[in-house]
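Q: What structure does this chain adopt?
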Amino acid sequence: MQKEKLNIKKLLGAKISQARKLRGFTQMQFAEILDISTNALGIIETGNGFLTAETLEKILFHLDMEPDELFSFGGVKSNDALYQNILKYLETIKNDRNKLTVINSILKNLI
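A:
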């Protein structure tokens, strides 16, 4: 069986996009916060380009992420780590009734 090559740019871009959306930022808002163009953020999020170290630092800061969290692409996490991540995400949306309603509905269907 041949080992598949990772596309770090695409994986990282998808992770940034997902984290941005979870925190309620539009692409335009987040690009402004990062002091880059919306087009540049789009290129990063689609994996068609890479970011500078300065932009990476800003992304980590504004998404409240640790580097290992951003660069982790599928490792198994403990139940406690998963639970802590869920709590962190919930904290970021605690004032957004629409998102909380969706989360509530999902959880209700799981239990």
